[in-house]
Automatic annotation (TrEMBL):
Active-site residues per Swiss-Prot or TrEMBL entry: K45
Gene Ontology MF annotations: sulfotransferase activity
Organism of origin: Prymnesium parvum
Residue span, Sulfotransferase domain: 133-250
Domain of life of the native organism: Eukaryota
Organism lineage: Eukaryota, Haptista, Haptophyta, Prymnesiophyceae, Prymnesiales
Keyword 4Fe-4S: no
Chain segments annotated as coiled-coil in the UniProt record: none
Entry keywords, A to Z: Glycoprotein, Transferase
A Pfam family: Sulfotransfer_1
Name of the featured protein: Sulfotransferase domain-containing protein
Binding site for 3'-phosphoadenylyl sulfate: R143, S151, W266
Length: 325
Protein backbone atom coordinates (compact mmCIF):
# COMPACT_ATOMS: atom_id res chain seq x y z
CA UNK A 1 0.00 0.00 0.00
CA UNK A 2 1.47 3.37 -1.01
CA UNK A 3 2.01 5.92 1.72
CA UNK A 4 0.04 9.12 1.25
CA UNK A 5 2.08 12.32 0.83
CA UNK A 6 3.08 13.73 4.23
CA UNK A 7 0.91 16.24 6.02
CA UNK A 8 2.69 19.56 5.64
CA UNK A 9 2.02 21.86 8.58
CA UNK A 10 2.98 25.43 9.35
CA UNK A 11 5.93 25.67 11.73
CA UNK A 12 3.64 27.25 14.32
CA UNK A 13 2.74 26.28 17.87
CA UNK A 14 -0.88 25.56 16.99
CA UNK A 15 0.04 23.28 14.10
CA UNK A 16 2.89 21.53 15.90
CA UNK A 17 0.66 20.78 18.89
CA UNK A 18 -1.36 18.54 16.51
CA UNK A 19 1.66 17.00 14.75
CA UNK A 20 2.61 13.35 14.87
CA UNK A 21 5.05 10.86 13.34
CA UNK A 22 5.57 11.47 9.61
CA UNK A 23 4.23 15.05 9.62
CA UNK A 24 6.37 17.77 8.07
CA UNK A 25 6.79 21.44 8.91
CA UNK A 26 7.21 24.02 6.21
CA UNK A 27 10.25 26.12 7.12
CA UNK A 28 10.90 28.22 4.03
CA UNK A 29 9.38 28.28 0.57
CA UNK A 30 10.25 24.71 -0.44
CA UNK A 31 12.04 23.43 2.65
CA UNK A 32 10.57 20.89 4.99
CA UNK A 33 11.65 19.31 8.27
CA UNK A 34 9.73 16.15 9.09
CA UNK A 35 9.13 13.93 12.09
CA UNK A 36 10.14 10.29 11.55
CA UNK A 37 7.63 7.45 11.25
CA UNK A 38 10.15 4.96 12.65
CA UNK A 39 12.92 5.18 15.22
CA UNK A 40 15.53 2.49 15.70
CA UNK A 41 16.24 2.92 19.41
CA UNK A 42 19.09 0.46 19.88
CA UNK A 43 21.24 -1.15 20.88
CA UNK A 44 24.85 -0.22 20.26
CA UNK A 45 26.90 -2.94 18.58
CA UNK A 46 23.83 -4.91 17.54
CA UNK A 47 23.98 -4.12 13.83
CA UNK A 48 21.80 -1.00 13.76
CA UNK A 49 24.23 0.62 11.31
CA UNK A 50 24.01 -2.34 8.97
CA UNK A 51 20.22 -2.49 9.23
CA UNK A 52 20.04 1.19 8.32
CA UNK A 53 22.19 0.55 5.24
CA UNK A 54 19.84 -2.21 4.12
CA UNK A 55 16.70 -0.22 4.82
CA UNK A 56 18.23 2.78 3.05
CA UNK A 57 18.25 0.71 -0.13
CA UNK A 58 14.47 0.32 0.09
CA UNK A 59 12.81 2.66 -2.42
CA UNK A 60 10.07 3.60 0.06
CA UNK A 61 12.25 4.35 3.04
CA UNK A 62 14.20 7.53 3.70
CA UNK A 63 16.75 7.16 6.49
CA UNK A 64 18.05 10.24 8.19
CA UNK A 65 21.53 8.70 8.05
CA UNK A 66 24.12 8.72 10.83
CA UNK A 67 22.98 8.88 14.43
CA UNK A 68 20.75 11.71 15.56
CA UNK A 69 21.24 11.84 19.36
CA UNK A 70 18.34 14.17 20.01
CA UNK A 71 16.48 12.54 22.90
CA UNK A 72 19.59 11.32 24.74
CA UNK A 73 21.16 14.77 24.85
CA UNK A 74 18.17 16.90 25.91
CA UNK A 75 19.28 18.92 28.90
CA UNK A 76 15.91 19.71 30.38
CA UNK A 77 12.71 17.73 30.52
CA UNK A 78 10.33 19.32 27.98
CA UNK A 79 6.95 20.32 29.44
CA UNK A 80 4.97 17.68 27.58
CA UNK A 81 1.90 18.12 29.77
CA UNK A 82 1.12 21.34 27.90
CA UNK A 83 0.29 21.75 24.18
CA UNK A 84 2.91 24.51 23.86
CA UNK A 85 5.55 22.23 25.35
CA UNK A 86 4.64 19.40 22.98
CA UNK A 87 4.63 21.75 20.01
CA UNK A 88 8.04 23.19 20.89
CA UNK A 89 9.54 19.69 21.27
CA UNK A 90 8.17 18.51 17.90
CA UNK A 91 9.45 21.56 16.05
CA UNK A 92 12.84 21.29 17.71
CA UNK A 93 13.13 17.60 16.93
CA UNK A 94 12.16 17.99 13.27
CA UNK A 95 14.53 20.93 12.81
CA UNK A 96 17.35 19.10 14.60
CA UNK A 97 16.88 15.98 12.49
CA UNK A 98 17.08 17.77 9.17
CA UNK A 99 19.38 20.63 10.18
CA UNK A 100 22.07 19.69 7.69
CA UNK A 101 19.79 18.69 4.87
CA UNK A 102 16.30 20.08 4.56
CA UNK A 103 13.77 17.94 2.72
CA UNK A 104 11.62 18.82 -0.23
CA UNK A 105 8.01 17.67 -0.57
CA UNK A 106 9.05 15.46 -3.50
CA UNK A 107 11.74 13.71 -1.41
CA UNK A 108 9.46 13.05 1.53
CA UNK A 109 6.44 12.09 -0.51
CA UNK A 110 5.50 8.43 -0.23
CA UNK A 111 8.50 7.68 1.99
CA UNK A 112 8.74 6.21 5.44
CA UNK A 113 11.07 8.48 7.41
CA UNK A 114 13.55 6.69 9.63
CA UNK A 115 16.04 7.68 12.25
CA UNK A 116 18.34 5.57 14.37
CA UNK A 117 20.12 6.37 17.58
CA UNK A 118 21.11 3.25 19.48
CA UNK A 119 21.82 5.31 22.61
CA UNK A 120 18.10 6.00 23.01
CA UNK A 121 17.42 2.54 24.41
CA UNK A 122 19.13 3.21 27.72
CA UNK A 123 19.57 7.00 27.68
CA UNK A 124 16.36 8.52 26.32
CA UNK A 125 13.15 9.01 28.26
CA UNK A 126 10.42 7.03 26.46
CA UNK A 127 7.77 9.53 27.64
CA UNK A 128 9.58 12.31 25.81
CA UNK A 129 9.98 10.28 22.61
CA UNK A 130 6.26 9.46 22.67
CA UNK A 131 5.42 13.10 23.38
CA UNK A 132 7.32 14.10 20.20
CA UNK A 133 6.03 11.34 17.91
CA UNK A 134 3.07 9.60 19.59
CA UNK A 135 2.36 7.08 16.84
CA UNK A 136 5.96 6.28 15.81
CA UNK A 137 7.05 2.66 15.45
CA UNK A 138 10.12 1.61 17.37
CA UNK A 139 12.63 -0.92 16.12
CA UNK A 140 14.95 -2.54 18.60
CA UNK A 141 17.95 -4.61 17.51
CA UNK A 142 19.46 -6.73 20.23
CA UNK A 143 22.47 -8.99 20.48
CA UNK A 144 23.51 -11.55 23.08
CA UNK A 145 24.49 -9.21 25.92
CA UNK A 146 27.90 -10.76 26.61
CA UNK A 147 28.94 -10.53 22.95
CA UNK A 148 27.56 -7.00 22.84
CA UNK A 149 29.57 -5.93 25.89
CA UNK A 150 32.80 -7.40 24.50
CA UNK A 151 32.20 -5.80 21.11
CA UNK A 152 31.50 -2.38 22.67
CA UNK A 153 34.64 -2.58 24.79
CA UNK A 154 36.73 -3.55 21.79
CA UNK A 155 35.33 -0.67 19.78
CA UNK A 156 36.33 1.68 22.58
CA UNK A 157 39.86 0.28 22.57
CA UNK A 158 40.21 0.15 18.79
CA UNK A 159 38.47 3.30 17.59
CA UNK A 160 38.00 5.63 20.54
CA UNK A 161 41.07 4.73 22.61
CA UNK A 162 39.60 6.35 25.67
CA UNK A 163 41.10 6.24 29.12
CA UNK A 164 38.31 4.13 30.62
CA UNK A 165 38.93 1.21 28.27
CA UNK A 166 42.72 1.12 28.52
CA UNK A 167 42.94 -2.03 30.63
CA UNK A 168 42.07 -5.46 29.29
CA UNK A 169 38.41 -6.49 29.36
CA UNK A 170 39.27 -9.15 31.95
CA UNK A 171 40.89 -6.60 34.26
CA UNK A 172 38.03 -4.11 33.86
CA UNK A 173 35.45 -6.78 34.58
CA UNK A 174 37.33 -8.12 37.61
CA UNK A 175 37.25 -4.61 39.12
CA UNK A 176 33.48 -4.29 39.01
CA UNK A 177 31.95 -7.78 39.05
CA UNK A 178 31.97 -9.85 42.20
CA UNK A 179 30.74 -13.24 43.32
CA UNK A 180 29.99 -12.60 46.95
CA UNK A 181 28.44 -14.71 49.70
CA UNK A 182 26.64 -17.81 48.50
CA UNK A 183 25.21 -16.19 45.42
CA UNK A 184 25.59 -17.92 42.09
CA UNK A 185 24.91 -14.79 40.08
CA UNK A 186 27.72 -12.22 40.15
CA UNK A 187 26.75 -8.71 41.13
CA UNK A 188 28.20 -5.32 40.42
CA UNK A 189 30.45 -3.65 43.00
CA UNK A 190 28.69 -0.34 43.53
CA UNK A 191 31.72 1.57 44.82
CA UNK A 192 33.90 0.44 41.91
CA UNK A 193 31.17 1.28 39.41
CA UNK A 194 30.92 4.82 40.70
CA UNK A 195 34.50 5.29 39.57
CA UNK A 196 33.79 3.71 36.18
CA UNK A 197 30.57 5.26 34.82
CA UNK A 198 31.34 4.36 31.20
CA UNK A 199 31.99 0.71 31.92
CA UNK A 200 28.93 0.69 34.15
CA UNK A 201 26.79 1.91 31.27
CA UNK A 202 28.39 -0.60 28.92
CA UNK A 203 27.45 -3.46 31.25
CA UNK A 204 24.01 -2.18 32.21
CA UNK A 205 23.01 -1.70 28.59
CA UNK A 206 22.83 -5.50 28.33
CA UNK A 207 20.19 -5.67 31.06
CA UNK A 208 17.73 -5.41 28.23
CA UNK A 209 14.62 -6.24 30.26
CA UNK A 210 15.28 -3.33 32.59
CA UNK A 211 15.26 -0.82 29.74
CA UNK A 212 12.57 -2.47 27.64
CA UNK A 213 10.17 -2.33 30.57
CA UNK A 214 10.57 1.46 30.72
CA UNK A 215 9.62 1.68 27.05
CA UNK A 216 6.67 -0.66 27.39
CA UNK A 217 5.22 1.51 30.14
CA UNK A 218 4.52 4.21 27.57
CA UNK A 219 4.65 2.62 24.11
CA UNK A 220 1.90 0.24 22.95
CA UNK A 221 3.63 -3.14 22.41
CA UNK A 222 2.22 -3.49 18.88
CA UNK A 223 4.40 -0.56 17.91
CA UNK A 224 7.63 -2.16 19.14
CA UNK A 225 9.47 -4.74 17.02
CA UNK A 226 12.57 -6.64 18.11
CA UNK A 227 15.19 -8.29 15.86
CA UNK A 228 18.50 -9.81 16.90
CA UNK A 229 21.90 -9.43 15.25
CA UNK A 230 22.29 -13.20 15.54
CA UNK A 231 19.13 -13.62 13.43
CA UNK A 232 20.35 -11.02 10.96
CA UNK A 233 23.68 -12.82 10.63
CA UNK A 234 21.91 -16.11 10.04
CA UNK A 235 19.38 -14.83 7.52
CA UNK A 236 19.36 -11.09 6.75
CA UNK A 237 16.70 -11.58 4.07
CA UNK A 238 14.19 -13.09 6.50
CA UNK A 239 14.96 -10.28 8.97
CA UNK A 240 14.46 -7.59 6.36
CA UNK A 241 11.17 -9.16 5.26
CA UNK A 242 9.99 -9.22 8.89
CA UNK A 243 10.99 -5.60 9.40
CA UNK A 244 9.25 -4.61 6.16
CA UNK A 245 6.07 -6.35 7.34
CA UNK A 246 6.28 -4.57 10.68
CA UNK A 247 6.66 -1.21 8.94
CA UNK A 248 4.00 -1.91 6.32
CA UNK A 249 6.49 -1.84 3.43
CA UNK A 250 6.40 -4.13 0.43
CA UNK A 251 9.29 -6.58 0.17
CA UNK A 252 12.29 -5.20 -1.65
CA UNK A 253 14.47 -7.45 -3.85
CA UNK A 254 17.41 -7.53 -1.43
CA UNK A 255 18.63 -10.88 -2.74
CA UNK A 256 19.30 -9.26 -6.09
CA UNK A 257 21.57 -6.59 -4.64
CA UNK A 258 23.29 -8.24 -1.66
CA UNK A 259 26.75 -9.78 -1.93
CA UNK A 260 28.80 -11.86 0.50
CA UNK A 261 31.92 -10.15 1.82
CA UNK A 262 35.22 -11.79 2.71
CA UNK A 263 33.98 -12.35 6.28
CA UNK A 264 31.10 -14.41 4.86
CA UNK A 265 28.48 -11.79 5.80
CA UNK A 266 25.75 -10.62 3.46
CA UNK A 267 26.17 -6.91 2.77
CA UNK A 268 24.65 -4.18 0.64
CA UNK A 269 27.33 -1.98 -0.90
CA UNK A 270 30.12 -0.96 1.43
CA UNK A 271 29.85 -2.28 4.97
CA UNK A 272 31.99 -1.60 8.02
CA UNK A 273 32.02 -5.35 8.50
CA UNK A 274 34.01 -5.76 5.27
CA UNK A 275 37.03 -3.99 6.75
CA UNK A 276 39.56 -6.63 7.86
CA UNK A 277 40.58 -5.99 11.44
CA UNK A 278 43.79 -7.16 13.09
CA UNK A 279 43.18 -10.06 15.49
CA UNK A 280 41.94 -8.89 18.88
CA UNK A 281 42.54 -10.48 22.25
CA UNK A 282 39.64 -12.53 23.56
CA UNK A 283 38.31 -12.23 27.09
CA UNK A 284 39.08 -15.26 29.24
CA UNK A 285 36.58 -18.10 29.51
CA UNK A 286 36.01 -17.20 33.17
CA UNK A 287 35.14 -13.59 32.31
CA UNK A 288 32.67 -14.79 29.69
CA UNK A 289 31.12 -17.25 32.14
CA UNK A 290 30.83 -14.57 34.83
CA UNK A 291 29.17 -12.16 32.42
CA UNK A 292 26.76 -14.79 31.15
CA UNK A 293 25.81 -15.59 34.74
CA UNK A 294 25.37 -11.88 35.44
CA UNK A 295 23.05 -11.45 32.47
CA UNK A 296 21.11 -14.70 32.83
CA UNK A 297 18.34 -13.34 35.14
CA UNK A 298 17.92 -10.42 32.77
CA UNK A 299 17.70 -12.71 29.76
CA UNK A 300 15.01 -14.68 31.58
CA UNK A 301 13.02 -11.50 32.20
CA UNK A 302 13.53 -10.43 28.61
CA UNK A 303 12.23 -13.76 27.36
CA UNK A 304 9.02 -13.19 29.34
CA UNK A 305 8.60 -9.68 27.99
CA UNK A 306 9.15 -10.77 24.39
CA UNK A 307 6.65 -13.59 24.76
CA UNK A 308 4.03 -11.74 26.78
CA UNK A 309 3.99 -8.75 24.48
CA UNK A 310 4.68 -10.63 21.25
CA UNK A 311 7.56 -8.33 20.33
CA UNK A 312 9.75 -10.67 18.26
CA UNK A 313 9.61 -9.97 14.55
CA UNK A 314 11.60 -13.09 13.61
CA UNK A 315 10.94 -16.58 14.94
CA UNK A 316 13.34 -18.69 12.86
CA UNK A 317 15.97 -18.86 14.16
CA UNK A 318 14.48 -18.23 17.59
CA UNK A 319 15.71 -15.20 19.55
CA UNK A 320 19.02 -16.23 21.17
CA UNK A 321 17.83 -16.29 24.74
CA UNK A 322 19.46 -19.55 25.78
CA UNK A 323 20.37 -19.45 29.42
CA UNK A 324 23.68 -21.02 30.15
CA UNK A 325 23.49 -20.97 33.90
N1 LIG B 1 26.33 -7.55 7.17
C1 LIG B 1 26.46 -7.93 8.43
N2 LIG B 1 26.00 -9.13 8.82
C2 LIG B 1 26.09 -9.51 10.10
N3 LIG B 1 26.64 -8.75 11.09
C3 LIG B 1 27.12 -7.55 10.75
C4 LIG B 1 27.04 -7.08 9.43
N4 LIG B 1 27.58 -5.85 9.41
C5 LIG B 1 27.97 -5.56 10.67
N5 LIG B 1 27.70 -6.59 11.47
C6 LIG B 1 28.02 -6.69 12.88
O1 LIG B 1 27.38 -5.61 13.57
C7 LIG B 1 28.20 -5.22 14.66
C8 LIG B 1 28.23 -3.71 14.74
O2 LIG B 1 26.95 -3.27 15.03
P1 LIG B 1 26.51 -1.75 14.88
O3 LIG B 1 26.46 -1.40 13.45
O4 LIG B 1 25.25 -1.59 15.63
O5 LIG B 1 27.66 -1.00 15.57
S1 LIG B 1 27.70 0.52 15.98
O6 LIG B 1 27.08 0.63 17.31
O7 LIG B 1 27.01 1.30 14.96
O8 LIG B 1 29.14 0.79 16.00
C9 LIG B 1 29.61 -5.73 14.40
O9 LIG B 1 30.00 -6.53 15.50
P2 LIG B 1 31.54 -6.69 15.94
O10 LIG B 1 32.20 -7.43 14.81
O11 LIG B 1 31.51 -7.45 17.20
O12 LIG B 1 32.08 -5.31 16.10
C10 LIG B 1 29.50 -6.49 13.10
O13 LIG B 1 30.12 -7.74 13.12
Amino acid sequence: MALPPPRVLLASTDAAARADAGDCFRLRAHELACLPHVINIGVQKAGTGELQTWLGAHPRLLPHGGEVHFFDTLRREPPCGRPRGRAALRLRYARFLWRRRRLTAAEASGKLLYEKTPAYFDQARPEVVMCAVPSARLLLMLRMPTARAVSAYRMCQRELQLKWCRSSFDAALARVLTLSGNRSVPSLRKAALRREPHFRRLLMMGQYALHLRRWLRVVPPRRVGVVWLEQFKYDPFACLAAVEDFLGLEHHAYREMATKNSAGLWVIGKSKSSVIRPPESRPSASSIAALEAFYSPWQRRLKELLLNYNLSLVHTPAPPLALNT
